[in-house]
Design goal:
By secondary structure, the chain is mostly beta strands. It has strands at residues 3-7, 10-12, 18-25, 34-39, 46-51, 57-59, 67-72, 77-82, 91-97, 103-104, 108-112.
Length: 114
């Protein structure tokens, strides 16, 4: 099973930027589709973006044009560049690997507020 660790969260002002990182440990996830999810207080966890092994990308409508998912297979890393952040982006962001058993990271808190 791929072990995932997210980092890069924090407090940022509206309109600001943040880059989240997800690092694999103990395995290689280069062949798997990777995803970023988020869960805001009192809401369901939702898919934010996915990226396949070959680089095909999908985003939910609310982040299109603002977020960019990318991966570095050589480093077993996946990133989420978050620009033009809005208060409604506030959530715990989780990395996920679409392996046969799946794997979640522990999440990293993103807070967008003045």
């Amino acid at each position: 099973q791929v072990q995932l660790v997210e980092s890069g969260g924090g407090l940022v002002q509206p309109g600001g930027s943040l880059r989240l990182s997800c690092a694999a440990s103990g395995s290689i996830f280069s062949i798997y589709t990777m995803g970023w999810y988020r869960q805001a207080p009192g809401k369901q966890r939702e898919l934010v973006a996915t990226i396949t092994r070959g680089g095909s990308i999908n985003y939910i409508d609310s982040v299109k044009g603002r977020f960019t998912i990318s991966r570095d297979n050589a480093k077993n890393m996946v990133y989420l560049q978050m620009n033009s952040l809005k208060p409604e982006d506030t959530a715990v962001y989780y990395c996920y690997v679409y392996s046969s058993v799946g794997s979640w990271g522990q999440g990293t808190q993103v807070t967008v507020s003045l």
